[in-house]
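Ticket reopened. Same input as before:
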Amino acid sequence: MELYNRDARRAALWEKHQPRLEEARSAWHRRTYWFAYPEDPRAYPEAWASQGESDFKAQLNRPFDRLRQPGRRWVLSDEVSPYTQQSLGLSYPQSDVGEWIETAREALSVWRWVPWTERLGLLMESVERFSRRFFEVAHATMHTTGQAWMMAFQASGPHAADRAVEALAVAYEELSHIPYHVRWQKDLGKVQAVVEKYFTPQPEGLSLHIGVSTFPVWNVLPGLYASLAVGSSVLLKPHPRAIYPIAVVVSILQELFEEYGLPPTIVQLTVDTFREPVTKALAEHPWIRLIDYTGGNEFGRYLESLPGKITFLEKAGVNGVLLESVEDLEAVAKNLAFSASLYSGQMCTAPQNVYVPRSGVKTPQGTLSYEEVRSALTRAIEELAGHPKAAPAILGALQNDQVAERIQRLAAQAIVHRSPASYTHPQYTQARTLTPVVAEAPAPDAAWAQEEHFGPRLVVVPVQDAQEGLERLYQLARQKGMLSCAVYTIDPAFKRHAARLLSEAAVPVSFNFRGQVFINQSVAFSDFHGTGGNPASNASFTDSAFVVKRFRWVGLRDCLAG
Amino acid sequence: MELYNRDARRAALWEKHQPRLEEARSAWHRRTYWFAYPEDPRAYPEAWASQGESDFKAQLNRPFDRLRQPGRRWVLSDEVSPYTQQSLGLSYPQSDVGEWIETAREALSVWRWVPWTERLGLLMESVERFSRRFFEVAHATMHTTGQAWMMAFQASGPHAADRAVEALAVAYEELSHIPYHVRWQKDLGKVQAVVEKYFTPQPEGLSLHIGVSTFPVWNVLPGLYASLAVGSSVLLKPHPRAIYPIAVVVSILQELFEEYGLPPTIVQLTVDTFREPVTKALAEHPWIRLIDYTGGNEFGRYLESLPGKITFLEKAGVNGVLLESVEDLEAVAKNLAFSASLYSGQMCTAPQNVYVPRSGVKTPQGTLSYEEVRSALTRAIEELAGHPKAAPAILGALQNDQVAERIQRLAAQAIVHRSPASYTHPQYTQARTLTPVVAEAPAPDAAWAQEEHFGPRLVVVPVQDAQEGLERLYQLARQKGMLSCAVYTIDPAFKRHAARLLSEAAVPVSFNFRGQVFINQSVAFSDFHGTGGNPASNASFTDSAFVVKRFRWVGLRDCLAG
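Engineering reply: fixed in the latest deploy. New output:
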């Protein structure tokens, strides 16, 4: 019995991409350094770079007319460049919630019966086509998120593409576990039972993917590709301030689906504005079964509370650092200053609370006092923020005004060792910039030190000794969650103790990061992003759970003899 | 860095059992006929059979003193034999909820740091030791559930053990995906970054497993072994009327853990009584994170509504059968009569609603009328129920009085073609027995035909034609859920149409089951039990999701050079 609608052209795409996906799957298992797309812009043809820039410029102040989905009206988006503080002037087609859902259901009825091999072939092809658009998407990312150029290129380009391929690799692993067809035979004595069995992975239902303004591509692609891989059709609801970068990805997918005889609406862009949001109406719709989301805690808790939904949430945590002992304090301070400054601290993995023992931090040369450590951290931030080339390249710009307001509020509550202040961007004089505050908590249980202050900040938190610091980290991890956590120690016994305790809180600890290795970075095919096991997230890029929760094996049995 | 507490004796157990588990894992992938433990009692030493019987007799009317866990008091259980209607006279040690949880947390802190290889070795060993107790557990099952002897032996013995090994095989698959330790290196130009990475699977937390009175071992073992495999410690809350069979399994595990230097309380039996239930207090306890449950819908919905829990629920559905066309009606009627009668219909996979077209059922010899089909079904039930040897061997006894009351209520609402009545058991004159009712619904939308009537019953439901029947099946599956579903058709186009539609409702369809192949049976290593995708269950024995939702990968990074 043939349950699927098979197609030779799509099957050929699977033939084309299977070897590469096999490689990716091995890399996911092996977890040593591997990538699908190089992170250095110079690795790509020069023509792609110039084409990307001109495509970006040509798109500004125009309707985004590359989508292949029904639209009832064009809406002007809320996208404003954090560098120029000018509207991008883009408009997108918009429908009504009921129509989007109905269109997605129709597409689902086709997509679920495309064999998963063909689906993976198409999706790998889409990533390859996306790679030719990395430069346009980088410009679009820079001018929606405020990221500096290099980060915009890497995060929305090769790093996001790698996470997409990783999600496909895990889907390949899991979908290939069970065969489509098998003949089962059992000797029943007088007779031989013969049963033909068919196993099809069935998607849980329609998927809604809710984007975030700071990483509109990187945080969306893993869930998007995982849902598509298992046969779900997808509504992609970008953040109103960061639509353009992901709209390019959607248009590539839609074009490809159409080219291969499928409804382009297997993925739809569901754009809204601040004035007329649609996210809740989509999320609450009974046909929406899977929800992927990156963003604040309040909305995350609302999504979690919706009955009958399967959620993949990355919310906020309070990332912590503990200094027990160090080899070289200056190197550590420099490393942490970079991590706190990168994209003005607007990363879910940026460090916030640095627990420093009042009893001091041990080094091979003797113990450094609490005050010496605090000064070193302040100095390192100061140096970076004051560097005319480093500041724009590392800090970039603030995504929105609320970030600056939040950091000013933090400064008003804390003991301030370095005030937050703008820097002047050499190229964009109107850029919305802010260098980090270095704040100090009076005591580790200060209420505001238990909350995330998303933005450029480092909070020094005094503890009696390293053991208290470790317990504070553990409690913070269990109660508030963390997406990153750093411990500095040159004592092997303390390291093992910390490793075990923090693992029990499902926190991914980074020990002794220094030089050019930063805790903000989580690398596809090697690091899991989020564990899913502490309050900061209930999902992980990309473990098996991230894929298998999206579909169900359905077995059919056809009795030929009994 | 060594995070685990390793032990050479436990590692030797892994060496011993790994080849067999490897075989089991291949079988799970292959899905052809395979078993770990033979289902024929004669495959086991005669001495085990007689020992089992005498152990059972010696245990009656005595405290169950084989557990190695703290107890504050002995409680007399509510267990009553459905065959003799006498109390088994067993008592069990009981603690308080707070103490059970505290003990489980202590055990968790040890068990999670036993390497998963050692855990799997221990758990495979425990199944092997359990196999020597199959006969005692079979007697205990018969006299708590009311199952006939052969079913009691198979369901609580080899079939349950196979499902345990299956859960361990899936855990082996998933836990071996990611290495414990890897050295990650990346050329950063001037320097070489070197990061040691450690990945440990961390259990989501403590597990609670809530047993059911009809299958106290079979329905519990998959979740129990899956939770233990990922390093969770476990509270096992049996149904108050069916404790003894699973208590034997717990005692085997506890003895083994102690023998290998571990806390026996990694698994605890948390016994309660009807007068003083503890299930809700356990389920609501904040330290309980995972809940496995088999039972009614109302309690299932309550468990699902508890915030912050990960649930694996098998609730009730309304299993449906559709007769479109048949090769041989008598053979089909006989097969369905057996499925409806087996264990007096007290199986979650027993058929209930049989949709029969008023336009008749096609056969190669012509069309049979609706009335002919209904009569054939009634006759087949009558023959089986009236057969002096078949009735006791197939029907067994009713687990409790509510089953009979429920079937009498059903009969009062329906058009009755065969009244439910007791049969006399040749060996146990006091046995609580009931043969199936054959009921008819006036129309497919009769409210009572949308509800499950757990017990010996077959409900004939008239539909205009096969297409309406298929739509009714689909709607019933989506709204009420099904754990089994049968379609009879000799038309290949109708078969494919039905296969695709019902797959979309995540219902496991069985086509044309006849002879000795019954829809009630789901076979480990080949059939998934439940899809988890329709309202009857949110979990499946045993797919990847059944295991991976219980743990989280936590990655540690130790920077050696940057």
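The longest helix of chain A spans residues 8-30. The first strand of chain A starts at residue 73 and ends at 76. Please confirm and we'll close it.
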